[in-house]
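Example (one chain per record):
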Amino acid sequence: MALRLRTCIYIHIPKTGGTWVTKLLQKEGRVLEIANPTHLTLTELLEDPAYAGWEGLPAFTFLRHPLSWYKSYFAYRTRFGWAKGSGLDRDCWNADFSTFVLRASEQHPGYLGDPYGRFLKGVNYVRPFETLRESLIEILGIVGETLPESAVYAFGKINHTKSHECQYTSTALKALLVSEKKAVELWRSSS
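Predicted structure:
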């Protein structure tokens, strides 16, 4: 999903706090328009004539560390159901987290690296999901889109899953870090 604010565009990368950012910005009356379909890259958005008025605005997004992303994805799918038609879900589903990660590393190596790269193309401000609140305040300040810090810090969790319950085996951890090397490098550059 992409949001148009008065002075900028927010690009939502899946599993990076986008629902929280969207709900907060909507609550605070900052969202002027929401692009559909969900999860458009900036390039796709600006190629669509329906969003011609969005050209020239700076864009921002957040990246989640792959180790955290896979935990969140697994917890979300375990809670809300697996999309068996989707490649990752179809090929890698398992009730055991580490087995899921090992399958993903083997059958879909670099699953996050390419999408992260596509989502980042043309984006002016990229910050880590792990500092979401602070980074959102920082970016909005840079682009002149003021938002009270108190509103950001008071806004509760949205779409929260039990990802903390997912634990990596040493084998799964090593496999994922090798598989997602590009995504880890992109995340590091956002910090």
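Caption: The domain at 2-190 is CATH 3.40.50.300 (Rossmann fold).
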